[in-house]
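Weekend entry, working from home. Most of the wet-lab plans are on hold until the incubator is repaired, so I used the time to fold the two sequences that have been sitting in the queue since the last round of cloning. Logging both here for the record. First:
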Amino acid sequence: MNDNTIEKYLAENFHISKDVIDFVEKSEAQIADRMAHWDRLAEYHQFKVIQAMQKVGLSDRHFHPTTGYGYDDEGREATEKIFADVFGCEAALVRPQITCGTHAISLCLYGVLRPGDELLSISGDPYDTVRTFIGAQGEEKGNGTLTDLGVIFNQIELLPDGIFDTEKIMNAISEKTKMVYIQRSTGYSWRKAITLAEIQRICAVIKAKWPKVVIFVDNCYGEFLDEKEPVAVGADLMAGSLIKNPGGGLAPTGGYTAGRADLVQLCANRLAAPGIGGETGATLGITRTFLQGFFQAPYIVSQAMKTAILVGAVYKNLGYPVCPDVDDYRSDIIQSIRLGDPKAVEVFCQAVQKAAPVDSFVTPVPWDMPGYDVPVIMAAGAFIQGSSIELSADAPMREPYIVYFQGGLTHAHGKLGLMLSLQQLVDAGFVAQDKLQTLD
C-alpha cells in the first residue's frame, strides 16, 4: 500500500489535511531511533510474563469461575503469584473488587496507617482524588478521611529538577512517620514522572536511617516502563489499576497492591475484613481476561509510549511547552502539553474523542467530577469505561491549561487521535496553517 492511499482515506473519512499528515509523519521520522528502545523493553517484559505463567503451571482449570465466597479459587491464587513474580516482590492482591487506582491506594494507606501515625508525601501533592480521601483539602469532618481518623499528613515538594529533596526528607522523618508516600506519575502537575533510579536512591537513603518506615509508591501509569518495578528496588508496597497499564486494555475492572507479604495482608484485611483477608472474593470468570490482559500488557504499553513520544514531538515542533521533553527519560505513559487556553483544551479533548472507536459522536465538556476541586474534561471513547491505557486525554480546567494525553492500544490509533487534535486546533485557529510548513 502506498502513502497516497492512507492520505486519501484520512482526508475523505476524517477530514485530515495532507499538511497535518505530513507534519506528523516528519515529526515521527525525527524520533525513529527512540522507538526501538520500547520494542526491546516490551520483549523483555513479555518473556518475564510468560515465564511467570509457566512457573505456576497456568492451565485452563485456572479460568473456571467461582461464585459466592470464592473459597479455594485456584485462578485467583495463580494470578496473584504471577503478578508478584513479574513485579519482583513477595505477594500481590489482584482483585476485581478493587474498583480503581484510588481504591487500590486507599487500601494500602488505610490498611497500614493507624491513629497518630504520620503519612509523609515526598513527591509533593498526591493526585486530587487521593488528597480527598487523605483529608488534605479541608474536607468536612466525619467523612472517614485519614486525617479524620487521626492520621497526620505532611508533604515535601520535589526539587525544581524533579528529584527528591533528600535533606528536607531526612529532616522531616521522625519516630511518628509510619509511611513515606511517593507518586511515580505526574498526576495533574507539570513535572516528569519520577524515575525508577531516583526511587531506588531515596529508598536506600531512607532505609539506612529509618528501616521500619514503610515506603509506598503509587505506581499508576508506571508498570512495564523500566526493567523492574518499585517494589523490586527498595519500596515496601505499591498499588495500581488494571484499567491502566497492567490490564493490557482487556481487564474490565480491578486493581492491585503488591509488595511485602505482611503489608499486602493488611491491604487484604482492609478490602475484606481481618480474619478473612484475601481468602474470599469470587472472580466470576474474570481470571482469563485478567491474565490475557497482563500477557499482552508489555506490548500495549510500548504502543502507548510510542504515541506519547510522538505527541510530544509534534507539539514541541509547533512551539508548545511539553512535559516530558522528547529526549527525556520516561517513567509513565503520560504526555503533557501546555496549551495555555481553556478553549484549546476543549478542542483538543473533543478531537481525541472523535478518534475513538466507542462514543466517537459524544462531545466531552468540563464537569464537576467527584474528588476534584475544579471542573475536569475527559476524552475517553474506550471499550472499558475510564480506561487510560486506551487512547484518552483529560485536563483540569485551571491555569495554565495543560492537557494530559495517554494511552492507545495501537500506535496507529494513537496517531489518528494526534492528527485529529492537530487538525481541529488548526481549524479553530489555535495553530496557524503556516506552522505546518516549518519542518520542510
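Second, folded right after the first finished:
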Amino acid sequence: MKINTRINPKTPKKINGSVRFLVRSLGLKTTPIYFSLTQIPNTRAGYCFNNCEDYIKENGGDAIYGWMIWEDRKKGFIEAEFHVVIKKENQYLDITPRYNYEDKILFVEDNTRKSGRMDDESWYSWSNIKIVDNYVSEMAEALKIKELNHENSEVIPLYTKEKA
C-alpha cells in the first residue's frame, strides 16, 4: 500500500481556524494580513533578509519581521516560515519572489522574537513551526543564518531556553 505523503503548501485562501491556531501557537496576538508580491529587479527567492536590507539601503523604509503562513488543507498541514517585509510610508512591500511562484502571501508580524542582523555576516532567524492535524509537530527554534558567500548560507541552531 502506497501512502501519498507529498505536501504542497500554498497561501491560505482565508484566515480560518487553522491559521488562528498557528498564530496562537507562535504566541502572537497580531492579525495576519495578505500581501501581494512587489516585483523588484535583482531580488532572489529565499533571500528575504538580503533583499529587504538592500532595498532599504537604497530606498528607505523599515524591516518588519514575522511569518509567512502556508497550508495544505487536504493534508491537514500548516506552517509558518520566518520572513521579512518592508514598511515604507505606511505601505507594506513584500519584495522576495517565491520558489512556488505564489503571487501573494499571508503574513503575521512578530516583534516578540529577536531578528535582523547579528553581525556583518550573520542574521537572527527562526525555524519553521509545523502543525499537522492540529498537533504542533515542530516548534520554531532560534537560528543563526551565516552568509558563506553570495550564493550559500549556513543554518546554525542557537540553543537557548529564552526567546533569542
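Plan for Monday: verify the second prediction. The longest strand covers residues 77-88.
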